[in-house]
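I'm stuck. Protein, please.
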Amino acid sequence: MVRNKAVSYAVMAMVDIAERGTTGEKPVEVQAADLAHRLGFPTAYTAKVLSSLARASLLRSDRGPRGGFQLARSPQEITLFDILQAVGAWNAGDVALSPSAPPKLRRSLNEALTKAMSHAREVLEEVRLADLFEAPAHTPEPVGV
């Protein structure tokens, strides 16, 4: 299971940007410092994570004093796998075995990890960014008394 700061920051940032960007007709740009403050993250690290997401074409960035970040695609087109991959949290699952480990053990472990990673990727590709944030609350219609 992948648990690290970059993954947490990336997922929370993408959800925040998606929530803000889907409330109106015009996409909303989010500045790294504002996002960091809102989420309680260090500004420099937040900017680094946002840059990684932009390099992966998940975010679009505009430079300058009024610049910021916005989604590059709709929340329905961005998967949880995309986000993990953007921050380097997805790799082949290399396990460091001792050089003296028997070849059969190496092969068996490699086969098991490859199969597990394939299944995990399938699951992560099914989860869309849109699934990670709540839709606006539905107000029930008044019932006549």
